[in-house]
User: Fold this.
Amino acid sequence: MPPLVFVLLDGVAAQPARRCMSHMLALEAAGQARYAELECELPPLSRPAYATLFSGLPPAQSGILHNDAAHLCPLPTVFARARDAGLTTAAAAYFWISEVCNSSPYDPARHRLTHDPALPIAHGLFYSHDAYPDQDLFHDAACLFRRFRPHLLLVHAMGADCAGHAHGGDSEAYHEAIRQADGLLARWMPEWLAAGSTLVVTSDHGMDAQGSHYDDLERIRRVPFWLAGAQAQDLALPQSQRAVAALMEKALGIAPETRKS
Ligand SMILES: [Zn+2]
Assistant:
């Protein structure tokens, strides 16, 4: 199976993505990427969305209904299923991903550098500062990709979410953070695609003008979803965030399992 690189750009709404992510739009125009928009689950918060994206469970079923619900996802995530299928997994990601998928609570001295094939995410570089630079995060991911050749790599950048909280979803800083992430994709995607990868680029939720994301608003709930690379033409685009885990499992060649979605 070709590797799957899953890029999660935290806090990027569909509308600013359509304006600022020129590199992704260029791939789409050239027929090298396919695009859909998804509506994120309620509440539109990061930790609940991580559990939904990687297990298929909506927040009301995962029990991860707020950002302080620091417990493991109750269903095996796609990382656990990949590990069980003998695949290599890796993530450069915010530490909540470690808590949702690997173990909780997060102990930075133990978990920041994770290398344990028994864990769902075997190779992890986890950060805990919301302002961790996206450039360094992409470098972390690039290191993991070259060193471990994972079948499944999560690249989880927080720059847009951080800028949105600080300056609001209409601010220049928020839009510039999205451009920066798109530029980093332009820098690193060619190497990952050349290795035969399938790529997903999406987000967990958007941002309102005041710099928060809690309300049932289109600018908060509508998020972008791109599919590129080896299997881009073969996989069906998901209809909801609850369908993303199943898409990932299909891309990885993991036998389907009934999910409560
Ligand atoms: Zn946020």
User: Anything to note?
Assistant: DSSP finds twelve helices and eight strands in the chain. The pocket of zinc ion is lined by residues 11, 46, 161, 165, 213 (CB under 6 Å).
